[in-house]
Every structure is written in C-alpha cells, then in structure tokens.
Amino acid sequence: MSSASHHPSANQTAAGGAKQQLASKLASCSAYSLAEAPPPFLASASMAAALFSFRAAALAALLVAVMAACGARGQLQPSNASADSQERSLLSYSGGWIPAKATWYGAPTGAGPDDNGGACGFKHTNQYPFSSMTSCGNEPIFKDGKGCGSCYQIRCVKSNHPACSGVPQTVVITDKLRHAGIIDMQFRRVPCNFPGLTINFVVQHGSNPMYLAVLVEFEDKDGDVVQVDIMQHNSGYWEPMHESWGSIWRIDPNRPLKGPYSLRITNESGKQLVAKNIIPDNYIPNTNYRSYVQY
C-alpha cells in the first residue's frame, strides 16, 4: 500500500528545559572547504536559528544532531589501526564520546544545499523532522554515502566561544556562531528516532519506465541504508538497486519496468524491511510515498 504526500511545510524550532534534546538526521553538504581536518574527524555544523538548552552539569550544550555528508573527500584520514577502532565506535550505540572539531557550514537558515540535496540527497532540511539540525561528516562518517542517515549526539567541550560556556542558558544559534571558527566538540552515535513517522520514499526527477531512482529517508534505529532491492509487479523475485549517491538508489535495466513496485531496504545492522507495493505504476516524480513500515 502507498500514499502520496508532501513534506510538512511548517519549520520546527527546538527549545525547552535543561533536559531537552534536539533530534535530526544525517543530511548532506555539496562541498567542503576545510581539508586539513585532524584525526579522527572534523564535523561541519549547519545549525542556524535553532534554540538550544544547556545543562548545568554539562560542559556545554548537549544536542541530538544529524551528521551529514560532504561531497568533497579532502580530509586527512587516520591510520588504518586508528580508523578501524573509530569505525567500531561509530557502529556502536554504547560507545563513548569521540573528540572532533566543528565549524559552520552552509546557509544561515540551515536549509541545506541547493544542488539536488547534496551528497546525501536529503532536501528541505530546514523543515521537520530535520529542523535545520544537520551537519557534515568526513569520510569515516560519510562511508561513501552509506553513512547518510546516521544520528549522533554532539556537545561542546571547551569554552572558546560564549555558546560553549557551559553556563546554563538558552541561546539562539545565529550568525555570531558562524564566525566562531573551529570549535572543539565531542560526538557519539545514537539510535535515530522519528516519532510518528514511517519510512518515506521519494521518486526522483527523471524517473521513467526504463529508469527508477528513489530517495529513502526517516529510518529509525541505524538511520542509514546499505542496500535497497526492488520487486516489480508479479515478478516474484528481488532485483538489487544501485546507489546513485547518498540515500538515492536506482535501477536502470535494459527493459521497461512494471509497477507497482515493492522495496526492500537493509540497514547497517543487517535488518530488512519490506514496503509492499509502495510505488504505483503511475508514480509521479518528486512525490513522497510514505510506507507503513519502520525499524
């Protein structure tokens, strides 16, 4: 079953008491200007006009943010042994805090890149549920696109800017933070959670009977997708789709495709979900088809 809808148009800003956490998802940047990132990672924050709540006991604001991928690959990489250890930490939700550095990236509104969603393909990131809470991650986080959708907590660890003073207060992240330079941060992976939302599929512009491309978004738990398979109408078998970039998957066989189409997604933990007949034969490009499945 499928239903066509559009993203909610209302932007959501997050504010509240000292215990509130802000949720978001791994969105993408189209370019990355800082190439000399020290190991292990350099994250680029794009978090404008959102309200943050500071804990009295914390060194700085604690927020749930989405790590997003950048198209450029210029960052310095850790040694193999260090990279393996860090990768294991990133796969674990129980891992400790990992040091990193963050700086501003992108538009003041946090709306994400204009070039078709950047390296992950996520659009309208200034709207719910992303709510401008997106950031960029270098290759160990990006994972050649398969890290798109993962969720992380980040927090300031040094008072090199008033926004990271650690004094309990509510601040608005504005242009002043964009000029704060590089800020020491910590991050750790956490399960994604999109209350009230199911996994959404967006048929991409240019799809036709010989080519179908789909964006997959709003996956709970791992948040990312490592494989998508498609079953055509009455075919009885699954065909692998190929990653175009980020969270956009495509199939372009040398024969016409026939819907309705069922999609099977596999996350990083290996769990599979099937959205049966989610995309109709007469689909409309740039339309959301919301499933009834969720991790």
From TrEMBL:
<dbReference type="InterPro" id="IPR005795">
    <property type="entry name" value="LolPI"/>
</dbReference>
<dbReference type="InterPro" id="IPR036908">
    <property type="entry name" value="RlpA-like_sf"/>
</dbReference>
<keyword id="KW-0964">Secreted</keyword>
<keyword id="KW-0325">Glycoprotein</keyword>
<keyword id="KW-0732">Signal</keyword>
<dbReference type="InterPro" id="IPR007117">
    <property type="entry name" value="Expansin_CBD"/>
</dbReference>
<feature type="domain" description="Expansin-like EG45">
    <location>
        <begin position="117"/>
        <end position="197"/>
    </location>
</feature>
<dbReference type="InterPro" id="IPR036749">
    <property type="entry name" value="Expansin_CBD_sf"/>
</dbReference>
<dbReference type="GO" id="GO:0005576">
    <property type="term" value="C:extracellular region"/>
</dbReference>
<feature type="domain" description="Expansin-like CBD">
    <location>
        <begin position="210"/>
        <end position="291"/>
    </location>
</feature>
<keyword id="KW-0134">Cell wall</keyword>
<dbReference type="Pfam" id="PF03330">
    <property type="entry name" value="DPBB_1"/>
</dbReference>
<dbReference type="Pfam" id="PF01357">
    <property type="entry name" value="Expansin_C"/>
</dbReference>
<keyword id="KW-0961">Cell wall biogenesis/degradation</keyword>
<dbReference type="GO" id="GO:0071555">
    <property type="term" value="P:cell wall organization"/>
</dbReference>
<dbReference type="InterPro" id="IPR009009">
    <property type="entry name" value="RlpA-like_DPBB"/>
</dbReference>
<protein>
    <submittedName>
        <fullName>Uncharacterized protein</fullName>
    </submittedName>
</protein>
<dbReference type="InterPro" id="IPR007118">
    <property type="entry name" value="Expan_Lol_pI"/>
</dbReference>
<comment type="similarity">
    <text>Belongs to the expansin family. Expansin B subfamily.</text>
</comment>
<dbReference type="InterPro" id="IPR007112">
    <property type="entry name" value="Expansin/allergen_DPBB_dom"/>
</dbReference>
